[in-house]
Amino acid sequence: PANRDLGLDKSRLFKPGDVHALADKIREFIEKPLTDMERKRQFGIIAENHNWECMAGRTLEVYRQIKKEN
Questions:
Q1: Which of 35, 42, 32 is nearest to 4 (CA)?
Q2: SS3 string of 44-67?
Q3: 70 in helix, strand or coil?
């Protein structure tokens, strides 16, 4: 799932669609914020995988797949 693409430790994840689990994780983040190492790692993953060039390439690939199927 997309929420696993951010490089967080598994203990920081929650089941998509489970609002109670999300609320619990928000409380956990408030009580125990990311460490400097976790934050730097997460920023690096986001910068590498979610930049304009990468997103544009993914979008183009979706368009190519749609065109190929039609």
A1: 42
A2: HHHHHHCCHHHHHHHHHHHHHHHH
A3: coil
**What pLDDT is recorded for position 30?**
94
What pLDDT, in 10s, does the model give residues 29-65? Answer: 899 988 999 889 888 888 887 789 988 998 999 999 9
Residues in the chain, total: 70
- pTM of the complete model: 0.53
**Tokens linked to 50:** 């979610």
The first and second tokens of residue 13, run together, are 């994840």
Is the distance from CB of 20 to CB of 54 less than 8 angstroms? no
Tell the residue number behind the tokens 């994840």, with chain if given. 13
One-letter amino acid identity for 34?
L
